[in-house]
Design a protein that fits this description.
CATH topology of the largest domain in chain A: Heat Shock Protein 90
CATH class of the largest domain in chain B: Alpha Beta
CATH superfamily of the largest domain in chain A: Histidine kinase-like ATPase, C-terminal domain
Oligomer: heterodimer
CATH architecture of the largest domain in chain A: 2-Layer Sandwich
CATH topology of the largest domain in chain B: Transcription Regulator spoIIAA
Mean pLDDT of chain A: 89
Order of helices and strands of chain A: EEHEEHEHHEEHHEEHHHEEEE
Order of helices and strands of chain B: EHEHEEHEHEEHHHEE
Mean pLDDT of chain B: 92
CATH class of the largest domain in chain A: Alpha Beta
CATH architecture of the largest domain in chain B: 2-Layer Sandwich
Largest sheet of chain A: 7 strands, antiparallel
Number of domains of chain A: 2
Low-confidence stretches of chain B: none
Largest interface: A-B, 25 and 28 residues
Number of strands of chain A: 13
Number of helices of chain B: 7
Strand order of the largest sheet of chain B: 1-3-5-6-7
Strand order of the largest sheet of chain A: 7-8-9-13-10-11-12
Radius of gyration of chain B: 16 Å
Distance between the termini of chain A: 48 Å
Number of strands of chain B: 9
Radius of gyration of chain A: 18 Å
Structural class of chain A: alpha/beta
Largest sheet of chain B: 5 strands, mixed
Helix content of chain B: 40-55%
Chain lengths: ~300, ~180
């Protein structure tokens, strides 16, 4: 029997939880069909998380592609179908070749498995990010370097800790619904070890009384703890945290059954969500918004 | 003896690729540091080496930890393989956030060559910073000169100079201290 998993019309880090709530109760080898026929929009997080979802299944899942041409075309430009072909049995018609041209896609979905992939990603995104951060987000030039640095560090999180390849995507768009401003969004998702298991593998690790996914995320994201005991380790996410703090952005990291977020004043997300549907690996999202004149922030 | 190491050349050799000018990833940083240490082995028992970032587009935290922090720690340690000193060149806003962050993390400091002279970046006590600036200004000094210049006791000045020597920010030459950047090895 195949279980149909419905993808919500608007797919972002929050609505992706609806997908996970449907999948989590099923055995890993249960046959599923991820139904995105009625999807109209997806954030980079939504798209990379959909690919990651397939990697958590032992039985190759099916995927019904969006029916709307505009949506399918956008997903194709983001290279979603190109990669989805390798992890899903795709159903329905979709653009077989990626269209090029003007697009919000700074970096189409790209697999990350080794150090050179990070070099490639940072190199590819640099020029376009420079233009968008300066002219569209109206941020200082220091924000450009920090952006590349943050992108590099969150991608390295996969190489250093996941034990499994992952995906990265970077897009810029006007976030009308929540913010009414332009944003640049980095999404990095993997189906690897996750933070709790990674930290548990540290030599001499002794779990606290309350040791779970949430406390592992607090250790890693807030306190900069790494499974490596060297003093310089664990600074990647701390750097990302500093970067979003400086440019009024948002960082959220989901792993296992918990999600931690550095929440800016323009957002009403909770700093820590626990008891979520289980999802392997780690999923990171960085949002950097357009600058606004002081006092005019929503 | 004064050496020059162009980090972008080392990066290209390390990656065997001309396409990349970004110092990113911990493994790349470790490999680049390994190459630098190889080059230092050929530089003699005592050497001042210019570490040149001029052609490096950016550096991330992990790479800065490997290339800058671990390099400085190795040669500041009493078990250092040789008497090496470093002057950093071409460090711009594309590198400074990551470098400052790792210096702070490890309590390190380094000398940076800029258009208007050499400055120190990183973690130093106020007396050490003033002692370094006095040493740089006066060219060759003893503890008494520094004490007079910054208005502290000779003991305090001596302690600051010893610490700067440990940080590889001054060299001890023929009974005098010389600031890195003033000294040419």
């Amino acid at each position: 029997m195949t279980t149909v998993i419905t993808v919500p019309p608007s797919l972002d880090d929050h609505s992706f939880e609806q997908v996970l709530e449907q999948v989590a109760p099923l055995p890993l080898d249960a046959k599923i069909l991820v139904d995105a026929r009625h999807a109209r929009w997806a954030s980079p997080y939504g798209l990379t998380a959909l690919l990651t979802l397939a990697q958590t299944r032992t039985e190759r899942p099916s995927f019904a592609v969006p029916e709307l041409d505009d949506t399918a075309s956008y997903w194709a430009r983001a290279a979603f179908f190109q990669h989805a072909e390798s992890v899903y049995d795709l159903r329905g018609s979709y653009p077989k070749r990626r269209e090029t041209g003007e697009s919000n896609v700074l970096l189409e979905i790209t697999p990350i498995a080794k150090s050179n992939d990070v070099h490639d990603v940072v190199g590819r995104v640099q020029e376009k990010a420079q233009q968008i951060i300066k002219t569209e987000l109206k941020l200082e030039s220091k924000a450009i370097v920090g952006f590349a640095m943050t992108l590099s560090e969150v991608c390295q999180n996969i190489i250093e800790h996941a034990g499994h390849g992952g995906w990265v995507a970077v897009q810029s768009y006007r976030w009308t619904k929540r913010l009414g401003r332009r944003v640049v969004v980095i999404a990095v998702c993997d189906a690897g070890l996750g933070f709790r298991r990674s930290l548990e593998s540290a030599p001499g690790h002794t779990p606290s009384d309350r040791w779970d996914d949430a406390s592992a995320l607090e250790e890693a994201v807030i306190r900069g703890v790494s499974r490596f005991r060297e003093r310089g380790r664990g600074q990647g996410l701390a750097g990302a945290r500093n970067y979003v703090g400086r440019w009024n952005g948002k960082l959220s990291v989901r792993s296992g059954t918990a999600r931690i977020a550095i929440v800016p004043s323009w957002d009403d997300d909770v700093p820590l969500a626990e008891g979520l549907a289980a999802f392997a690996g780690a999923q990171v999202q960085v949002i950097i918004p357009e600058a606004v004149a002081e006092g005019s922030e929503r | 003896m004064m050496n020059h190491i162009d980090i972008s050349s080392v990066l290209r050799q390390t990656l065997a690729c001309d396409l990349y000018s970004n110092l990113v990833t911990r493994s790349t940083g470790a490999a680049v540091r390994g190459q630098i240490e190889q080059l230092l082995m050929d530089a003699g028992d005592r050497a001042l080496t210019v570490i040149d970032f001029s052609h490096v587009s950016m550096i991330d935290l992990s790479c800065a930890d490997e290339v800058v922090a671990k390099l400085l720690m190795r040669y500041a340690d009493d078990t250092r393989p040789q008497d090496a000193y470093f002057l950093f060149r071409g460090v711009t806003e594309h590198h400074s956030d990551a470098i400052e962050s790792v210096l702070e993390r490890h309590g390190l400091a380094l000398a940076i060559e800029q258009a208007d002279g050499v400055q120190v970046m990183g973690v130093l006590r106020d007396v050490e910073r003033r002692a370094w600036e006095a040493t740089y200004r006066l060219a060759r000094v003893g503890a008494g000169d520094v004490a007079d210049e910054i208005g502290c006791s000779v003991d305090e000045a001596q302690e600051a100079l010893d610490s700067l020597l440990q940080h590889r920010l001054v060299m001890y030459m023929d009974g005098d201290y010389v600031a890195v950047g003033r000294a040419r090895g």
